[in-house]
Write a structure and sequence with these properties.
The complex is a heterodimer of chains A (115) and B (115). Chain A contains no helices and twelve strands. Chain A is mostly beta strands. Chain A is globular, with a radius of gyration of 14 Å. In chain B, strands 2, 4, 5, 6, 9, 10 and 11 form a seven-stranded mixed β-sheet that branches. The mean pLDDT of chain B is 92. The chains are: A mainly beta (115), B mainly beta (115). The interface between A and B is medium-sized, with 29 and 30 residues.
Chain lengths: 115, 115
């Protein structure tokens, strides 16, 4: 079965500093990868997704992620964070062979941006 | 544009009482619909998904059930709530036929507390 591991449950960082949120998935087959963001008491919003092609994917709000097949990783990065980036971030994987109905989510990483 | 409405936003119910959470989607036809439950530090757990009216797939056996009486309406129910049913419930939709690469679009969630 697919699984997603987000290696850090919480990441504190100062405003304007770079940040990397780590995600590893377990799969020996091709998968689709996603990052979602959740602000307090809200649903999740899509940040970016990797389906195929270039391994560097750019998303909204200045975020980007790099797909690394050999390391089965899909780390999320931002070169300079803002206070407004404080939120919980979820990495997710979807298996094309299951029709896409069973997206598997990681446990989430809570990003705290400090002034 | 597509929108998803979920209500109520918060709910406090006693153990043993019934539950009905409702979700509706606007601006799209024949969407795939999902119910997820989010527990703190544990990511999102898929409870049910539906590819059409009256078609429900259950992912986790429990005392919850789901129904889809109309194309864009998805209801989560229980006859008797348990303490362990407390959590944050999220409804989501994805484009029908979009496959595994089609992202999920979430409502703002219902925070259920069973006392």
């Amino acid at each position: 079965a697919q699984s997603v591991t987000q290696l850090d449950s919480q990441v504190p960082v100062f405003e304007e500093a770079p940040v990397e949120l780590r995600c590893n998935y377990s799969s020996s087959v091709s998968v689709y990868l996603f990052w979602y963001v959740q602000y307090p008491n809200q649903g999740l919003q899509l940040l970016l997704k990797y389906l195929s092609g270039s391994t560097l994917v750019k998303g909204i709000n200045g975020f980007e992620a790099e797909f690394n097949k050999s390391q089965t990783s899909f780390h999320l990065r931002k070169p300079s964070v803002h206070i407004s980036d404080t939120a919980e971030y979820f990495c997710a994987v979807s298996d094309p062979n299951t029709g896409g109905f069973k997206t598997i989510f990681g446990a989430g990483t809570r990003l705290f941006v400090k002034a | 544009s597509q929108t998803i409405h979920q209500w109520p936003a918060t709910l406090v119910q006693p153990v043993g009482s019934p539950l009905s959470l409702e979700c509706t989607v606007e601006g799209t036809s024949n969407p795939n619909l999902y119910w997820y439950r989010q527990a703190a530090g544990r990511g999102l757990q898929l409870l049910f998904y539906s590819v059409g009216i009256g078609q429900i797939s259950s992912e986790v056996p429990q005392n919850l059930s789901a129904s889809r009486p109309q194309d864009r309406q998805f209801i989560l129910s229980s006859k008797k709530l348990l303490l362990s049913d407390s959590g944050f419930y999220l409804c989501a939709w994805s484009a029908n036929g979009g496959g595994a690469g089609s992202p999920l679009h979430f409502g703002n969630g219902t925070r259920l507390t069973v006392t």
